[in-house]
Amino acid sequence: MNTKKISSKTVSLRLMLVIPTIILALAVFSLSASGQKTTATKKEVAPPPPPPPPPPASSDKKQVTGMTDGAYQVVDVMPEFPGGDPALLKYIADSTRYPKDAKTQNIQGKVIVRFIVNANGSVEDVSVLKGVSPSLDTESVRVVKTLPKFTPGVLEGKTVPVWFMIPISFALN
């Protein structure tokens, strides 16, 4: 066997070359891995919602708080459909007729409708917030306009008009 003695200068020189190379390799891999995480999180983050509209100017601030377009968004007691939410969903399902053109074109989706429940419980100012197609949007508005009276919303002991939103789903079997 041939045995050589390696000098301590050679060993220290090799270590001085190997250690920085390992550190450099670790730095490159960690930077590339963190770059991938940043890209993945950017894809998953949704943009922030738009700020709410400013309340209308008025001398009576207590009355105006939470009010838009003459109706409140948040009240002490929200309006309620006779029989509750399950009855509301059943009424909408029973009253909705799938438009023929949407059936033939295989159009499906969820229409979000908003409306005001007046202080007397009736429905008014029906509009589509998120539509799918003109025929499905029109059918959703028609159905909501036929809703019977709600128990009105209450704020500080008084019945008040309140904005209400509901999704109406259209799906073909």
Textual characterization of the structure:
The protein is α+β, with helices and mostly antiparallel strands and 173 residues long. The protein has 2 domains: 7-45; 66-170, TolA/TonB C-terminal domain (2-Layer Sandwich), CATH 3.30.2420. 40% of the residues lie in helices and 21% in strands. It has 5 helices and 7 strands; from the N terminus they run ααββααββαβββ. The chain has a 3-stranded antiparallel sheet with strand order 4-3-7, with helices on one face. The radius of gyration is 32 Å and the shape is elongated. The protein starts with 7 loop residues before the first helix and ends with a strand. The model is unreliable at 37-42 and 58-65 (pLDDT under 50).
Summarize this, please?
With 173 residues, the protein is of the alpha+beta class. It contains five helices and seven strands.
Structure characteristics:
173 residues, alpha+beta, TolA/TonB C-terminal domain, two-stranded antiparallel sheet, 7 strands, elongated
Q: Enter the CATH topology name of the largest domain.
A: TolA/TonB C-terminal domain
Supply the CATH architecture of the largest domain: 2-Layer Sandwich
What number is the mean pLDDT?
79
Distance between the termini: 83 Å
> Strand percentage, roughly?
15-25%
Number of DSSP helices?
A: 5
CATH class of the largest domain: Alpha Beta
Q: What would you call the shape? A: elongated
Largest sheet: 3 strands, antiparallel
Radius of gyration: 32 Å
Estimate the helix proportion, in percent: 40-55%
Structurally, the number of domains stands at 2
| SSE series | HHEEHHEEHEEE
Low-confidence runs: 37-42, 58-65
Could you tell me the number of beta strands?
Answer: 7
